[in-house]
Each structure stands twice: as structure tokens, then as C-alpha cells.
Specification:
single chain; mainly beta; Porin; 16-stranded antiparallel barrel; two-stranded antiparallel ribbon; about 5% helix
Length: about 325
């Protein structure tokens, strides 16, 4: 009887393991980063070796009704950081195109298609990206924010709720971030955001997003519109418009217009670049630009870029990245 009980217990445990799905994904990258006038500000080196290793640990299971339940937690090491970080996790449920995340969730604004499409180089950077502050899935532990007194605060009670729904070539998203769900902190507002994207005939991509009280800053409202057209299997071109909102001090971050594209000039070799314009008052110049290249190694790629920002300073990078 005792042996039968042990055997049945082992069978139940094995069945539970078989039903679960635990995966590890992520990427590694390393390269050389150059920044005119210092990589981390004045009196620092202009060139450094910059590396990152990211591990996403996902665990999920499916119910008999076909509903998937799961969660994600992330480990990441960045060159120059004091410690390897373990991100707060999120839990999710998906069914029939609907996905709901709770915890350190993704956000609708940050998940908008094409928002980061102008990025180039091995470090995926662009002066055509949004300059505004808004919440996103946070890799570096619980996020921090400043209250209306300018005090830096760790948001231990941070709560994100993210919902997305996909049908065919259309996806809609909504999210709300409560920086402190237990107590009310003066000067920290809930962030609300929405986004949607649609692909027509596998050639034209359209995307839009809006965020209210970005990064818990009252009145920091941001908007995004983007479109990209695929001419053929060799090249694409896109246009993004971003209202970047304002800082916690009320400074207007201006509006950004960026034209970008990529073209395969030879097998496994792609050239990409952008030209951006931003009208914020603090710019040295309203125009920024960048050009980059990527060479596919099959399972990894080499990439590099040269860019000039709105401060008239140049930055460049070159390195290798592999995904797993």
C-alpha cells in the first residue's frame, strides 16, 4: 500500500511537471560605444566596452478550457552596473487573442508598434525615439519616481495592469499603472495609456498611442502616430510623429518628427538610418540623424551606427548580438 501511494504521488508530480512549460529566452550583446564628451558625462572616457546579458524566465500552464496562465521574471547584467538585477515579475492569462498582465507589466504606450522602429546599431538607440517619461516593463527592480517635493522614492507598491486583444492584423492595448496602490502620495498620479496597430496587405503598418500622466507626472500627456511602408523584400520606409509631453518641472520636451528606413544592399547586409526633428527649447539644434548597418551571421548579427544628437554631439557603436 505504501509503495502504491509513493508511486501514485510520483505520477501526479510528473504529470504536473509535464503539463507546465518553463522556458528561458533573452539575448547577449557586446561592443564598443563612443560618445563625444564622455560616455557618462564630463570627465569620463569617450569610448567604453558595453555588454549586456538578459535572461527572461517564463513559466506557463494551460487549463482544460484552453486558457493559458503564466508569469515572467527577468535577470539582467549590464556592464557598469553594481549588481545583476532581478526584475519584479508579472502574472498573465491569455485566451482567444486576449491577454491580461498584472504586476510589473508591460504598458500600452511602450508596446506601441513602430515607436522604436527608428533605432539602429548594436545597442538599438535613436534620437528619433520618444524623449518623454512613461512607464514600461521594468528590468532594474521596482521603479523610482519623484514626488512633488522632488524626493526620490522607491515605489514598492507599484501595480501595473495591462490588457491587449488581437484579431487578425489588428491589436489594441490598454494599461494603468498605480505607483503606490496602498497609500496616496502627493504629486504621483496614475498613468493611463492606450495603443493600437494595424497591418494592411502585409505592406503598410499603422500605429497610434497615447499616455496620460506619463511616469506619474501630473499633466505629462504624450501622443504617438507612426506609419511604415514595405516597398519590397529589400526595403522599408517609415514616418513617426511624437508629442513628448513635459518633465516633472513643467519643461516642454517638444514634438519629434522622424523619417527612417532600411534597405538590404546585399545578401545578409542591411543599411538603416533616420533623420529627426525636435522643437524643444533646450536643443543645441533641432535636427538629429543617424546611419547604421547590420550583417546577419545566422543566429547572431554584427551591427554598428554613427549618430548626431540634438546637442550636436556624435555617438557611435559597433558590436555583436545573439538571441536565444
Amino acid at each position: 500500500m505504501k509503495k502504491a501511494l509513493i508511486a501514485s504521488t510520483a505520477l501526479v508530480m510528473t504529470a504536473g511537471i509535464a503539463a507546465a512549460d518553463v522556458t528561458i529566452s533573452g539575448y547577449g550583446r557586446t561592443g564598443v560605444l563612443y560618445q563625444e564628451d564622455g560616455v557618462r558625462g564630463d570627465n569620463t572616457n569617450n569610448s567604453v566596452v558595453q555588454s549586456r546579458l538578459r535572461l527572461n524566465i517564463d513559466a506557463s500552464t494551460s487549463s482544460d478550457a484552453g486558457v493559458d496562465f503564466g508569469g515572467r521574471i527577468r535577470m539582467q547584467w549590464d556592464q557598469g552596473d553594481e549588481d545583476t538585477t532581478l526584475a519584479p515579475g508579472y502574472l498573465y492569462v491569455t485566451a482567444s487573442g486576449l491577454r491580461v498582465e498584472i504586476g510589473n507589466s508591460n504598458t500600452a504606450y511602450d508596446s506601441a508598434a513602430l515607436l522604436y522602429a527608428p533605432e539602429i546599431g548594436v545597442y538599438d538607440r535613436s534620437f528619433g525615439d520618444s524623449r518623454g517619461a512613461f512607464y514600461a516593463y521594468n528590468t532594474d527592480g521596482y521603479p523610482r519616481a519623484s514626488n512633488n517635493l522632488g524626493e526620490d522614492m522607491l515605489l514598492n507598491d507599484y501595480l501595473g495592469i495591462f490588457v491587449s486583444y488581437s484579431v487578425g492584423d489588428f491589436t489594441a492595448r490598454a494599461s494603468v499603472i498605480d505607483p503606490n496602490q496602498v497609500s496616496s502620495i502627493d504629486g504621483l498620479e496614475k498613468e493611463y495609456s492606450v495603443s493600437a496597430n494595424y497591418t494592411w496587405n502585409e505592406r503598410l503598418e499603422l500605429s497610434a498611442a497615447a499616455a496620460k500622466n506619463g511616469k506619474s507626472i501630473d499633466g505629462n500627456d504624450q501622443y504617438f502616430l507612426g506609419a511604415r511602408y514595405k516597398f519590397n523584400d529589400m526595403g522599408r520606409a517609415g514616418l513617426n510623429w511624437i508629442d513628448n509631453g513635459e518633465t516633472a518641472g513643467g519643461a516642454d520636451l517638444g514634438k519629434t518628427i522622424v523619417i527612417y528606413g532600411d534597405y538590404m544592399v546585399a545578401p545578409m547586409t542591411t543599411i538603416n538610418g533616420y533623420i529627426a526633428n525636435n522643437d524643444a527649447d533646450g536643443n543645441e539644434t533641432d535636427n538629429a540623424f543617424g546611419i547604421g548597418a547590420k550583417y546577419d551571421l545566422g543566429g547572431a548579427y554584427l551591427a554598428g551606427s554613427v549618430q548626431r544628437g540634438f546637442n550636436k554631439l556624435y555617438t557611435a557603436d559597433m558590436g555583436v548580438r545573439f538571441d536565444f
